[in-house]
Task: structure prediction
Amino acid sequence: MKDGFLDIEARELILNLFSSRVGLPIILVDEVSQLVSSVPGFSFIPYCAAVKRTPSGFAQCMHDHKTRALEAQESHLSVCHAGISNYVVPTVVGEDIVGALLCGQMKIEDSSYMDEAQEKHKRFLEENQLSDSDRLQLAKLFEDTEVYSLDQVNIDMLEEFRTILEWIYRTSYYYEETIAEREQLERRLEELTHEMQIRLQGLVAQSENLWFVMEQRRDTRRDFKRAAKRLLDSIEAFDTMIQNLGSFMESTYRLEKIKIAPVIHNSCRAYRTIAQRKGVKIKVDLELIDGKSPVLEISRLHIRRMLDNLVENAVKYSYSMGRSGTVKVTGRHSGAFYSIAIQNLGVGIYEDEFSKIFEKGYKGRLARDAYRTGAGMGLYIVKDIVDKHFGKIEVSSIKQRAAPYETTFTVYLPYEQPHRR
Amino acid sequence: MTAKGRIIWVEDDTKRVPGIYDLVWPLQTAGYQIEVMESKKQVLSRLDHLRSCDLILLDIILPVGDKREEGIERYTGLSVLRAIREYGIDKPVLVLSVVSNPKVLDELHKLKVAGVVRKPVRPSVLKERVEAILGIDTPHVDD
Result:
């Protein structure tokens, strides 16, 4: 699970290393052939960019990546539909191809590849409805595309990177599996608890009736009456234990007056080590009331879970360079509410997604890559917990001039819960 | 002797779980007629029959059917209650439940239940609740 936090940066690091050592552009596409990672400053070569700008060029490129790269079982050199060569390295987890590394955007000097490239380029120009000027420009750009020898592609290194990438994917997959397993376990526990309570209902009913009958009969011995009452008390005590089990597995909200500051500090402490490994600091600044922690009526387990989700996300999507590597957790008194803001600088959220990110299973577009380490359930759970506390949650994500987004989740929790009935 | 009142009890566990039926023993001995309906299907096929009762005791059961269903739709008792209300039956419904899911409880209140009793409940307490809803004074039962 912890390794999942490394996803984005590890992938970019790998691509950077390769590109700087080999001098060739490299990209990582996912199983539907969308660009997942590229080296900073990556751009398609002029010919590729021009091909993508033609009316059906982009769709053709996507289709081409998918069929050519992802249906391949082995690494190979491949010439695209428009005549450009890439070395294609599929990344495989188990039996599933989950993506591919594409390296090159070049022409290969070997005559067999060159012939195929020329032929495909020619066919591309013929089969697409292009203006004369576009056709001329594409021909010129193709002509100008750099020619490499196969030796210049460091295939051994590519294969090593492939191994590392597959390892990253595997840890991500494992993490998703553990979430699914946890949900299944919670559900089974819920069913088991219900079954036990139903059985207890029978016992409670029988023991109270027994005691009631004994109480009413004048000839019942006093010790029998006491035994019947003790039986009823014991069964009800057992019921309390079952209820506690229920709250342990978090289906029951137990509202209590809780000091919020230690709950926030404990949550941050839990993620501090992971954050440090990533070069991210977690800073906590909580407004106290008369020097003491504010007291809120909350379900401790749920609020802890909510905070864990938010802090985990903030660390996960933080960039770890310079001042970006700080997650700020701020608590403030705000009328009838206490607000807790969790802020980071890193992968952001588009404004049109602010309401969608709380939906079950939704994956933000910018965080798409990083979200691979989760099931898209975290914020859904957070919103559910906030709603159940009659609180509210706000999100903002503002693009900074330097590059990353400043993203803030602010949760407002009421000091006291309204009565439900 | 005529019954003091007629209660329909929607509960699927009366045969499966020993002692469940004892829950209504004090009501029966006090003169109430208890009629058990064991499934959603049985309730839906006899909705007219519910019009003539005085009170419905409803168990918010976990489903035995499709376990893939998510959220509160897993609790079939809710859909039974919805059907009862949609059919225009406004008899008081007292819900017996082991479910403490706040979403389920909110939904129950939207469907205007007379009360929710968490299982396990003592038979004497259930009788008190029923009689309070029916407007009948019950002598207080001491522990």
Remarks:
- Chain B touches chain A at residues 13, 17-23, 25-26, 62, 98-102, 105, 109, 119-124 (CB under 8 Å).
- Residues 7 and 34 of chain B are 5 Å apart (CA to CA).
- The longest strand of chain B covers residues 5-10.
